[in-house]
Every structure is written in structure tokens, then in C-alpha cells.
Amino acid sequence: MSKAIWGLALSCLALVACSEKPQTAGVPKSDTPAFTGTAGTAFAAPGWKAGDKTAWEQQLKARQLNSQNDYSRMN
Amino acid sequence: MARMKFVCDSERCIECNGCVTACKNENEVPWGVNRRRVVTLNDGVPGEKSISVACMHCSDAPCMAVCPVNCFYRTDEGVVLHDKDVCIGCGYCSYACPFGAPQFPSQGAFGVRGKMDKCTFCAGGPEENGSAAEFEKYGRNRLAEGKLPACAEMCSTKALLAGDGDVVAEIFRTRVVQRGKGAEVWGWGTAYGSQKAGKAPETGAKS
Predict the structure, then answer these.
(1) A44 touches chain B (CB under 8 A)
(2) Which of A27, B86, B123, B193 is surrounded by the most beta carbons within 10 Å?
(3) CA separation (Å) from A30 to B43, B63, B81, B85?
(4) At residue B141, does pLDDT exceed 90?
(5) Which candidate in B27, B141, B145 is best for mutational testing of the A interface (most A CBs within 10 A)?
(6) What Rg value do the Cα atoms of chain A yield, rounded?
(7) Distance, in angstroms, between B181 CA and closest chain A CA?
(8) Which residues of A touch B11 (CB under 8 A)?
């Protein structure tokens, strides 16, 4: 009887060695939204307040219209 | 705000490679990796056209769909970014991308593939905005500085437009109306969807 128990325990131990470790794919870290600004303000464009989403959107829009739309710049 | 989009006006692109240089300089992209390239169609033939190509930050990005470790994510502005700490460098994304955007640095012996690198729309990565760690892995985060991608801002002929999709479309529409030609927008339908995208080809038509 005890032999059978020992045998069962050993086979269980052996089978455990064959099992796989759980593999979970890493998930990307959450990203801070761009409108919150940068850690340092040395390179930040002036004219908007970090953390104000509307101001950030207006800043990008103005920059886009002023620098890329040459019809509005020249006419 | 609408989604961030790129468009290259092939009527204006003069193949100066200013966008490529601006990108490499701004993000300190390693040797051998070009996040942006200028492609010339019918090179040497009168009427040749050039376009500047990089990651288009697709609406339904195929790279995101095929990534086995789910390292991609999309920001609220529609910019497709990835986490280099999760990327395993398998290269599936480079096969899936219709624009050839994902790049792999060939450092070390035998050209071992490293972590994937691609255009970030100058929006950095998941590290803290403007931090040294973010710059090291992904380059500058100009969006968080209230600026647009360096490639578009540096474009001398304003062929490359970047920013809010609605404004980009409006600028391009004005140009087409003014000059009366050149309405073809290379890659726009593939990246941002069109009436034909996702539908089966017509009977007898080549796919």
C-alpha cells in the first residue's frame, strides 16, 4: 500500500516537472496624454498651458494653419 | 480634435529628403534605420512623382492586428505607438505594413533583429513625456511640446502635411482647387479607409 502511495507521489512529482510555466503577454504601459505637456519646459512651444486640452488643440491647429497652409499665409 | 494624419502632396515633393534628415536629426535615429523615406515613382521619366513615406498611423493598423505580444497601442489622437519593452522583434509587423514602416536595427553579428523602430508622429512612447528614457527609446515627443512632427514642419515645399486630419484635408483640398490637378493622395485610402477599402474586388478585376 505504502509502495503504491510512494509511486503515485513520485509520478506526480515527475509530472509537475513536465508542466509549463504560465506565459502571459506583456501589455503596453499606459501612456500619458500629449496635452499634459513634458517634464521639462525648455523645448515646449509658448502660447499654451500644459494640461489644458483645448489650449493644446488650438496651439496645434494654429501651428498647422500658420506653417502649412501657404495659401492663407500669402493671400 | 480629429485624428492625426499624414499626407504627402506628390505635386509638390521635390525629393530633397529634408523630411528624412529632419526625422533622423530630431529623433537621433540609429544608423541603418530610416523612419521616413522618399520614394520616387517612374524615376528619370518625365512626369516622375516623389512621395515621402513613413508610418501613416492607420485607422485599422495591420501591425496592431498581427503583433503576437500586443505591443502596439493607439493614443486618443489616433497615433499608433508601440512599447519597445514588450516588442520581441519577430518582424510580423514589417510583413503586415503596406508602407514598409517598421524598421529593425541590424546591430551585432549575423544581423540579429532588435526591437522594432518606427515613426512615432513625434509623440514619443509610453515612458514619461519628455523624459530621457523616452528620448533614448523613441525620440522626441514634440506633440507634448505643442509642436507638430519635425518632418512636416521642416518640409520646404510644404508637400508633407501632418496634424489634425480635418485641417490636413482642408489644406489639401484648397490646393487642388487652386491648381486644378493633383488630387491623388498616395496611401490615404489604404491608411485611413476609403469606399473601396475592405471590399472584395469587382468580378474580373485584379486585386
Answers:
(1) yes
(2) B123
(3) 43, 19, 11, 13
(4) yes
(5) B145
(6) 31
(7) 16
(8) none
Contacts of B2 in chain A (CB under 8 A): none
Give the closest-approach CA distance of B86 to chain A in angstroms.
6
By the 8 A CB rule, do B30 and B65 touch? no
Contacts with B72 (C-beta within 8 Å, 6 or more apart), sequence order: A28, B61, B63, B64, B80, B81, B82, B83, B93
Query: How confident is the model over A2-51, as pLDDT tens digits?
Result: 788 888 787 777 777 677 776 666 666 678 999 999 877 688 998 899 99
Could you give the CA distance from residue A43 to residue B146 in angstroms, rounded to a whole number?
9
Tell me the HSE value of B160 on the side-chain side, using a 13 A CA sphere: 29
**pLDDT of A11:** 78
CB contact under 8 A, A38 and B130: yes
Which residue of chain A comes nearest to B82, CA vs CA? Answer: A28
Contact A60 B178 (CB under 8 A): no
Report how far residue B141's alpha carbon sits from residue B135's, in angstroms, rounded to the nearest whole number: 8
In eight-state DSSP terms, residue B54 is S
pTM, two decimals, is 0.84
Exposed / middle / buried, residue B149 (Cβ in 10 Å: 0-12, 13-18, 19+): buried
Whose CA is closest to B165, among B70, B56, B84, B65?
B56
CA distance B50 to A60: 27
Convert the pLDDT of each residue in B74-123 to its tens digit: 999 999 999 999 998 899 999 999 999 999 987 666 556 789 999 999 99
CB contact under 8 A, B1 and A60: yes
Q: Are B171 and B160 in contact (CB under 8 A)?
A: no
- For chain A, give the number of residues: 75
ipTM at complex level: 0.86
